[in-house]
Input
Amino acid sequence: MPHTPEEKKRAVTRLRRIRGQTDALIAAVERGEECGALLQQLAALRGAATGLMAEVLESHLRETMARPAEAAPAEAENDDEIAAIMRVIRPYLK
Output
């Protein structure tokens, strides 16, 4: 869960965008749009949800892997570790 006001605002903004995409998809189904158009909208919706999941996961890793204040010089190393983990995980989220 995002904890800072900025992270929460970003998450809510993304969720509202996802809700808009979902509403558009519902309307497209109700109108009887072609399968190709529906698949394109579904792919966009999945991409948006996956992007949000990656952002929340990264936030969670940063919070979970936070080191005590006395280890502050290692903070850059911690960021590198998190970046490496995210590089490995992101392809699986697609």
Q: What stands out?
A: Residues 35-64 form the longest helix (30 residues). The helical segments are 5-31, 35-64, 75-93. The CA atoms of residues 54 and 90 lie 7 Å apart. Residues 5-93 form a domain with the Methane Monooxygenase Hydroxylase; Chain G, domain 1 fold (CATH 1.20.58.1000).
